């Protein structure tokens, strides 16, 4: 490698080693993957735990299988590097600037899961080398038929996203060697973030499919994820959880102007009776049958989900629908991502009014936050489902 590339690799490692939830060995393996991929470099490397590992063999596992789960599942790569990923570890949420509330409601079990981290410092390409950028992710997963799918998805989201992002970023660093304008660097970063999120959702579904087959799980989960970077947002949606943007607007009337909030839905529900969803289901040999609501083969009330492996052959997919990157403005006040239990008894306009009431302090009750106020109100108005909300003040 050239002296410049070696310096950049060292700097990238220094930045990436500070990523929350990661040990240096984890990140180092990914960059060594890049060295193998982009050169004839082959080595057996010694790590802090005294073990030696063949980098080329781990690279072969990654390339042959084509996904993060295959690398993590490798005894050689996993045991020697002590990866901090476990499907049984408890959910941890970073809540800087992040409000959230959950309620089991009238259901016997809580199958919703949430993840929120708005303070992720990640390495990125800059005009004169590497720089550190701040990212945020907020996500809800509404499980059905059990909590196994939503639990796994919420737990693996940040780890898988980190792995995909760093791997893709390293390959860009080797490809461009720092020879980028600021505009080119930002454009590439937005593309890497988008591709990393898509790969993450795909790999979570792959991993859960493997576990479901081994354990006869028949459950599934929605996934609604907001990715935030540099004053822009990207929304990915699988299923029927929702994301909204609440923004100021000026309403004129009777000679006066009053500040109001608009509610903009950022997602489209994946219901089987949607024309494009129905077409895919029927092309795969499935059918849309109304049983209370339209259902795939009379069973599942959504046409996209993580898991639900017994319906995959009938056109149920885990491919998210994306909004595309869109800028936030000074008029934007709140981002919200929520499971559909909220909207069983509330409309988007109802939620908007609750926000206005909370901000005017014209409320009574025991809610300790706006997110909790929304959840409690949805329950009080008759929602029978699990209830989960993440609210991000802007």
UniProtKB/TrEMBL annotation:
Pfam families, sorted: PP2C (PF00481)
Any one GO MF annotation of this record: protein serine/threonine phosphatase activity
Transmembrane stretches, start-end: 21-41
Chain ranges of the PPM-type phosphatase domain: 97-394
Keyword entries, A-Z: Membrane, Transmembrane, Transmembrane helix
Keyword Cell cycle among UniProt keywords: no
Family matches, as Gene3D superfamilies: PPM-type phosphatase domain
Protein name, entry field: PPM-type phosphatase domain-containing protein
Provenance organism: Citrus unshiu (Satsuma mandarin)
């Amino acid at each position: 490698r050239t002296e410049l590339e070696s310096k950049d690799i060292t700097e990238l490692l220094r930045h990436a080693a500070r990523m929350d939830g990661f040990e240096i060995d984890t990140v180092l393996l990914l960059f060594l993957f890049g060295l193998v991929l982009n050169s004839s470099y082959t080595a057996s490397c010694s790590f802090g735990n005294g073990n030696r590992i063949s980098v080329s063999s781990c690279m072969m596992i990654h390339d042959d299988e084509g996904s993060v789960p295959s690398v993590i599942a490798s005894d050689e790569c996993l045991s020697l590097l002590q990866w901090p990923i476990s499907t049984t570890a408890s959910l941890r949420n970073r809540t800087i600037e992040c409000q959230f509330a959950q309620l089991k409601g009238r259901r016997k079990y809580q199958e919703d899961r949430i993840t929120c981290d708005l303070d992720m410092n990640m390495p990125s390409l800059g005009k004169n080398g590497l720089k550190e950028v701040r990212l945020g992710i907020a996500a809800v997963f509404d499980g059905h038929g059990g909590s196994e799918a939503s639990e796994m998805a919420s737990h693996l989201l940040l780890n898988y996203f980190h792995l995909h992002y760093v791997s893709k970023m390293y390959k860009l660093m080797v490809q461009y060697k720092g020879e980028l304008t600021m505009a080119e660097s930002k454009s590439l970063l937005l593309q890497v973030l988008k591709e990393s999120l898509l790969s993450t959702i795909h790999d979570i579904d792959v991993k859960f499919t493997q576990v479901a087959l081994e354990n006869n799980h028949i459950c599934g989960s929605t996934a609604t994820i907001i990715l935030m970077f540099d004053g822009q947002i990207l929304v990915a949606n699988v299923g029927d959880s929702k994301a909204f943007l609440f923004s100021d607007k000026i309403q004129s009337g009777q000679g006066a102007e009053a500040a109001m909030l608009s509610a903009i839905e950022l997602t489209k529900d994946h219901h089987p009776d949607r024309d494009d969803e129905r077409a895919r289901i029927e092309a795969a040999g499935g059918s849309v049958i109304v049983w209370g609501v339209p259902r795939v083969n009379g069973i599942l009330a959504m046409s996209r989900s993580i898991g639900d492996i017994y319906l995959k052959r009938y056109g149920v997919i885990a491919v998210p629908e994306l909004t595309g990157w869109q800028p936030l403005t000074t008029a934007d006040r709140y981002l919200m991502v929520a499971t559909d239990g909220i909207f069983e008894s509330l409309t988007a306009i109802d939620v908007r009014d609750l926000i206005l009431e909370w901000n005017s302090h014209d409320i009574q009750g025991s809610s300790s936050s706006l997110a909790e106020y929304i959840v409690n109100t949805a329950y009080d108005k008759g929602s029978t489902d699990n209830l989960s909300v993440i609210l991000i003040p802007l």
